[in-house]
Write a structure and sequence with these properties.
By secondary structure, the chain is of the alpha/beta class. It has 15 helices and 18 strands. The chain has helices spanning about 15-25, 85-95, 125-130, 190-200, 210-225, 240-250, 270-280, 290-300, 305-325, 365-375, 385-395, 400-405, 425-445, 450-455, 500-515, and strands spanning about 5-10, 25-30, 45-50, 80-85, 100-115, 135-150, 155-160, 165-170, 175-180, 230-235, 255-260, 285-290, 335, 380, 460-470, 475-490, 495, 520-525. The strands form 3 sheets. A 9-stranded mixed sheet has the order 2-1-3-4-9-8-7-5-6, with helices on both faces. Strands 12-11-10-13-14 form a 5-stranded parallel sheet, sandwiched between helices. Strands 15, 16, 17 and 18 form a 4-stranded mixed sheet that branches. It starts with a strand and ends in a 13-residue tail after the last strand. Bound molecules: xanthosine-5'-monophosphate (XMP). The site of xanthosine-5'-monophosphate has 12 residues, from loops.
Length: about 525
Amino acid sequence: MDKILILDFGSQTTQLIARRIRDLGVYTEIVPGDAELTDKIVSADVKGIILSGSPESVNGTGAAPDKKIYNCTRADGSTMPLLGICYGLQRMTHDLGGKVESLPHTEYGRIEVKTNKEALPHQTHISKFLDGFRVSFTAWMSHGDTLTQLAPGFKEHGTSVTGYPAVAAHEQKPWFGLQFHPEVTHCENGDDILCAFVFNVCGCEKSWSMEHYIEELNTTLKEYAGNNPVLLLISGGVDSTVAGAALLKALNPEQVYLMYMDTGLMRKNETENVSAILENLGAKNVHVIMCENEFLSALKGKTDPEEKRKTIGDLFITIQEREVARLKLPDSYLLAQGTLYTDLIESGKGVGKKAHVIKSHHNVGSPLVDAKRKAGKIIEPLDKLYKDEVRRLGRFLGVDEDAICRHPFPGPGLATRILGEVTKTRCDILREADAIFIEELKKRKSPREVFLYDEIWQAFAILLPLRSVGVAGDERKYGYVLALRAIISSDGMTADVYPFESHDLMEISARITNSVKEIGRVIYDISSKPPATIEWE
Ligand code: XMP
């Protein structure tokens, strides 16, 4: 499968470059900008390399690529096409003998760019690249440093309205540079520019599709697992459910063991729903472990959020080890995980260092996972996929739509949403109120005619350790205060409050207080993240 390799120098938009190209039908992989370009990384299927942007300067602490990049060839012996984006272009210029300087005038935001494409001869590598450009267009820039002298062999083919080089290309080699970010939606016809590099210059074939991925995944899973049992811990979230579906599709369902723990901190009917979904997918060995009593006893009297989390995490591991031992699987069994591509990329630093971050909180530092990883017995069927690709894969595999579109739910479950002590009664009250809230969101539509549940990234109710006075009939009532939270986000790192129509909130509040007698008052959380977090604990 043709591949575009992306060297990540830390730009916030590196992931976007990878996404855009995958959406064009070509597989992309991100590696750290300074990674050694071994034969394994620059494998035979790499057709071109992109050097990403960076918050650093080439004259300061900005990382340099492995020098081999400038002698790199493809499997057919041709020169490896390179595309430098912003810092990537500055890096190439600096490394190849040009000049990059910090000028007082910076370019930020939408900037007009004019190319010389009309004056160029046809059918050269440069004209093929410039095919993706309009003669003049609005680009999106964000740079402090500027090219004050191109590297030998390079020529300017596009200039920004402020007079600085915006597009450069090497006269002989398929090396290009852009001072702007084609991956950002504000860049006019940015996709066409990426297309020109990926297809016209690199000659990639469109081979990245879900059908293709499933075919490859089936072969890999079969080869890797052989006849050995495979155990997957299911949380009920979309990732582990889709990972389970992938295993069941590729392997003999008899060899797939799915384990799910009902901690008593789950949403209403969650365990029944999860079991039904897995059975629909053809699961033969579903182990549902009912451990509500163990969790509630361990949480008894605990009110400190960190202590509650630690208690849950520790108990989760203890029960997991105990139950896995009870299955008496042979030592050769493999452990599967629903790790995504983004989970493998260290967040924040941008540089794709493969820190095997284990996603669900209860698996962090699990001795079982560590031991299996050391023994090379971990399978991660989703580790090449982004979240929305996982959803697409899930649909292909016949996973229930409800499971695919579910809002995220934290590992510690309702415990992060019951402030103060977690008791069975409080869990039941919250479960009931939360279910009403979610049911209403699935019924009601926004002014755009989209179901509120689908427009909202995550919504849930929180039970406060507060009671307030009210009236019910002629009687004075002393009920709990329930908070509702609904946010819009793209990855949970930042979040905006969902702007409900006020009648929706009022009607939902009335239904909750009418149906859950312990709740006397409902409030709506209008805090964004930051400064607040999404969960309350
Ligand atoms: P915060 O509250 O940190 O949440 O703004 C960001 C996203 O992460 C989820 N979350 C968790 N998920 N284990 C998880 O698996 C956890 O301990 C945990 N804490 C928060 C939260 O629901 C939101 O989607």
